[in-house]
Amino acid sequence: MSSSIGGDRKVSLGRSVRGTTPRLKDLASTPESPRTPLFRSTSSAYGSPGGSFRTEDEYIVLELGSRFVRGGFPGESTPRCTLSFGPDEQRRVGDYRQWDPEYTLARRKRKRGQEWGQEYELYQMDLSQLDMGLVEDKFERAMREAYNKYFLLDPKPRRILLALPPLMPRQLLSTVLGVLFGNFQAPSITLMASPVLSSVAAGLRSALVVDIGWAETTVTGIYEYREVHQRKSIRAGKLLSKEMAKLLNHELDEWIDDPNAPKTEISFEEAEEVLSRVGWCKSRPKSNRRTLYFPARTSPVLEEFEDAVESPEPVITIPFPRNVPPTELTIPFASLAKPAETALFAPNTALNEFDDDELPLHHLIYRTLLSLPMDVRGLCMSRIVITGGVSSLPGLKTRILSELDALVQQRGWDPVRSYGSASERHERILRERKENLERRREEGTDKVGESLNPETPLSAALQEQEEDAIEHKLAHLALKNGPPPVCTTGGTIRGVETLGAWAGASLVAQLRIRGIVEVERDKFLQHGLAGANREKDVSVVPQRQSIGPGVGRGAGERGSWTLGVWA
Amino acid sequence: MAQPFPYTYYSCDCYDSKTASIPTKRSSQPPPPEDEDERTFDPRNPRSNYSLYPLEHLLYCEDCQQIRCPRCVIEETLNWFCPSCLFEVPSSMIKSEGNRCTRNCYNCPVCTSPMMVNSLEPPDPNTDDRSGIGGPWVLSCPYCHWSTVDIGIEFEKHTGITQQLSRIANGGKPIPTQKERDKERDRRKELESKKKEREILSESDDSPTVDRRRVDGSLSHEELFSNLSAFYKSQIASATPSNPFSPHDINFSSPSSFSRIMNLYSSTSSKKQKQAKPTPMREAASTLEGLTIHDSAADATAIERIKKEGWSITLSSTQKHDQLNPNMQFDDELRPVATLLRTKRGKRCRNCRHILSKPESKITSTRYKIKLLALNHIPRLSLRALSTTTAQQNPTPGTSAPLTFDYNALKSGIPTHFLLTLSNPLFDPIRVTLATPSTTPGKIQSRITILCPQFEVGANTDVWDDALSSSLSPVKRGSVIGPDGQIQGGIEAGKIWDRGRNWTRVVIEIVPGFLKPVTGLAFGGNGGVPEEMLNEDEDVLEIPIFVRLEFEADVSAEDRGLSDSKESEKDKREKREEAFWTVIGVGRIAAI
Ligand SMILES: [Zn+2]
Ligand SMILES: [Zn+2]
Ligand SMILES: [Zn+2]
Ligand SMILES: [Zn+2]
């Protein structure tokens, strides 16, 4: 990234919001633009003769998150293991208490001064709170379990394809790489950003990836396998789980109904278990719908469900064997949808009261879309990929998509919040579409984009664009060879399912596509361990080629090193 | 800590010596004492859990003369086997079939017990012969009684369960093989493209909606993955300029990002290839290509199910986690879990690559060909309460003196004496120096005093040698046991307590700390500062002890050979040192 030349390597978390309407040419020069191109070379099976790819190389595919690591092999649809970092994983060797039924039945207490769920994290983004040595300890133990218990490999060293969040702090990355190179002998590690891989696993080249993870939700605009914009909010799994605990504590106190009993404080595990088993998310309340616009596929089941006032009110019974005394709590089924409501959508708070990093999910997505260049936005809004641990909460995806749809209907795409009438807005959209189409037609002729900026080599993104435009013209010629029209769907809110970042990484490794960010073991051990003082200057990845403007610090200096997105 | 008190843990310091790759003999350069004082080992630090081991778990590298923990060894898989049927699996099969038993070994998806193949027919009590019983067969759990009947799966044969299971979906529907799936996909795609052709020719500009081309029913994770994979393969194949005369070239006048990158990075791309403008890789367009549009009906159905059927049909996080595909929610999605294979592994020193342990290759054998255990090289430290020993040595009938010391109820503020025994596994006598912080680190501060921190421990020689040796004579002491079972005298600073052939005992005085801060005057009950809850195990009294050994040992044959072979005098000795941290779990402080 050009912004990080010579500067410190802190990853800028809050990416600036551009005030003016972004245009395509901005895409090529903005700091967050061309990121990690996904495709550099193909396997020799498909690629050109003499391609540099070593077919005999074998890979391990890893995905790293703040509370888990998944590992497995290329071409498999699911990882061989998903390892977590709870207290049971952090015990001393020879401490077998988690197999003691008496112990496991007792309610666990949170440690003093620790945040909700902190004991279950591998890392957190706030490095000041983080003991990097402990991260190394935890990660090393987990990887040892993965290799010894699940991978069961022969001693041959394996390359690693590592999927990880794009904003991984450098120190953290260095720790992770250090373990993989040092203790597990990986000859090289290829880094790929999880959102890009999520879009690969959705079959998409462009997408808006909404990753509702543990500590934060990140919304990433992906255009032609590159991240073009990212925003985040703390409305994610941790907040949700905290809200669930709050709800259950309250309900249990009411249920037990003894003023002398100590206040219930359920454990993290209990809250997580209830959340993952019977937590759910209500569909968008009908009364709030101003513009009724729904894709035809909204099921009648859902409509019926929202409207019916059921009587008697459905209830659900949840066992709490760790409560003292063990109990079964019966509560209205509807109350189990409240935590998601409060934590993720915060309907009872005015929008201007939120900090930038605590926007409700639909607003976060809307704002991300708003800051995308128009063409990209058109594609992304029809390719909303919701993923991450929390995304499997029943009803959540539907809710997010309908909230977003309503927001778009209501506000359109003016950066300044507008309450313009529906007809005005409609006209404007039509106008925009027309202009857009015309512009693309012009660009579609031979001198593509040179009018935009002669100095700047075109980003791949720019070039791809005009094919969509001329597609109509060529449709008759193309016959079956042209992309099906569904590939150019845009302009409406549409959700697309993904098999997840790990599956995306597995596909990429199976297809033997090499990423640009590849770290070699020798180089890493040589420079990465040379001492912390040098670390600032030494980037550990060979950047073999520069990819147009703005990529890495090495633009123009061939053979220099880059960490790509993670620089 | 889950181990019975008192216990001893040994620390391997490889975690903070990143220099493990540089061969150093630590013994030659002991760190300066001030340095050690600064870095008192804190058993409360979460990191300590990763460096502390029971002595039995540690190996020892004789070349590096250092402890080796699971973290500073390199493991090599020697063979693979199923822990359930003990079948040894060749490595070629690991590659092709994966890491699970492909015979009839399955674990219950509900409770993880090993499952059995049973006939649905009532067993004939007159025969033990399984083949006599007719099918259909099921996998069932003898512990919780879950069986494949619960997911609608029966087997025709009682052997080859894996093959049969891979062809039956829950509910009993057959699962097509990969080949059949590929064929079906091609057939459907052919159909689709024909339809599209007709549409385009008939000028129908309206794009066919996704919904129309959706195949009925939702595809499994596995199926979608294979569709995606096939799609990408076909895209890459058609986008590669290996077929410059393909009809793709005439369609589009500009290169795609894919081919751009191809041209940029493929050093072998010729001019001709650059001119060729292949079809850009497009995105997936249907479920056949792995595209799935979000369907709110699935969400609604899941919610309805939970509402109607409740907690019991949902899966616990452990149950989900144990499944091969953890993306499931309801109990009718469960599959029996094939038993995970295990390995026998050899261990090498990460530093010098010498073999430290190597099991016998026979699956059923639990023996080792080589196993260099740390307990043969490192003295064992063990703690015992002094009052117990004495009380047992002098049983006084009729008294109410406590015969057993309750390690789970240490008394705050009361000085208590313990005996620390060091036993020496080496064939040379060792000089031991112990160091410990005067108060334990952490919230609850207990005071520790080692009365005799420097002493010698005899060599682990034969008993016969011991008898001949006169240098170490037993210590005489005149201790008196008071009426309360406590020692009245005989404990002297600087003197060891007791000594044997290869062991020495010293006294440690411990004053267990207070769980609650002692406030001067407790006016008004617990008013004022709210009481802080103790963390788990915070009431456990653990003391870090730094152990340093000095001894003279025979120069190893190798080293001697290197130095000078002429001087093959028998008594060529070298001075050696070892140092390491230990943590002794004394007991649990009683709440007052
Ligand atoms: Zn170690
Ligand atoms: Zn088996
Ligand atoms: Zn069972
Ligand atoms: Zn060694």
Q: How far is the first residue's CA from the last residue's CA of chain B?
A: 20 Å
Query: What composes the largest sheet of chain B?
Result: 6 strands, antiparallel
Query: Roughly what is the average pLDDT of chain A, rounded to an integer?
Result: 74
- Shape of chain B, please? elongated
Shape of chain A: flat
> By helix and strand content of chain A, what is the structural category?
alpha/beta
Helices of chain B, by number, come to 13
The strands making up the biggest β-sheet of chain B line up spatially as: 2-1-22-21-16-18
Rg of chain B, Å, rounded: 36 Å
Structural description of this entry:
- The complex is a heterodimer of chains A (567) and B (592).
- Chain A is an alpha/beta fold.
- In chain A, 34% of the residues lie in helices and 12% in strands.
- Chain A has helices at 24-29, 101-104, 132-151, 170-182, 194-200, 237-256, 268-278, 300-307, 338-345, 361-370, 374-381, 396-411, 422-444, 460-478, 501-510, 521-528, 532-535, and strands spanning 59-64, 68-72, 81-84, 159-164, 188-193, 207-212, 217-223, 226-233, 315-320, 327-332, 384-387, 495-496, 518-520.
- Chain A is flat.
- The relative contact order of chain A is 0.16.
- Chain A has 17 helices and 13 strands.
- The N and C termini of chain A lie close together (7 Å).
- A 6-stranded mixed β-sheet of chain A has the order 3-2-1-4-5-13, with helices on both faces.
- Chain A has a domain at 1-35.
- Residues 1-55, 288-307, 418-422, 443-480 and 529-561 of chain A have low confidence and may be disordered.
- Residues 18-37, 203-216, 242-279, 388-401, 472-476, 478-485 and 521-530 of chain B have low confidence and may be disordered.
- Chain B has 592 residues and is of the alpha+beta class.
- The two termini of chain B are 20 Å apart.
- Chain B is built from 13 helices and 22 strands.
- Chain B has a domain at 380-391 and 405-588.
- Chain B has helices at 33-38, 91-97, 161-167, 178-201, 210-213, 221-239, 257-265, 271-275, 296-309, 317-322, 386-393, 463-468, 557-563, and strands spanning 7-11, 52-53, 59-61, 66-68, 73-81, 88-89, 106-107, 116-119, 137-140, 337-338, 342-349, 355-359, 368-371, 380-385, 416-423, 430-435, 447-450, 454-457, 498-499, 503-511, 540-554, 573-588.
- At the A-B interface, helix 3, helix 7, helix 8, strand 9 and helix 12 of A face strand 2, strand 5, helix 4, helix 5 and helix 6 of B.
- The site of one zinc ion has 8 residues of chain B, from loops.
- The site of one zinc ion has 6 residues of chain B, from loops.
